[in-house]
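Sequence only, no structure available. Ideas?
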Amino acid sequence: MSHINALTDKTAKSHIIEAQILIDLGEYDKSITYLNVIAERYKGNSKEVKARILGGLARNAFMLELYEKAVKLWEEAIEVIDDADKYPYLLAVFRNNIASAYLNLGNTDDAHRYLLKSIDGYPLSQTYQMLSKLVCMHPTKHILLT
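Reply:
I predicted one. Tokens follow.
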């Protein structure tokens, strides 16, 4: 990672993709280190880049079954880009991921709340799948639209 110098928005995004690939390969420690180096060396002001770094760190925490930490990081990422007009897809992905973490924690109420927020902002097919699963698990507790 010594090959990372000062990063532009474009190069930072490329490095974030590499860090995401490390997650896919199960190299969580390497990905976390890589994302931290990117965060340290990124001098731009792109909200998207900053949110994607936090999202990558959150994804690592999720994969390590550190669900509460993952939720916290994704919520920080949402705060960074809480501009639904500019980043609706990214917000929906982060909210879906938070819902998954809450499901793993057994917190179906918060999972439901985040899934509904996700649909409201940018309907993803996996959001509907997770909502269906949640409703099937607790048919009298959750309704699809509130």
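The chain has seven helices and no strands.
Hope that gets you unstuck.
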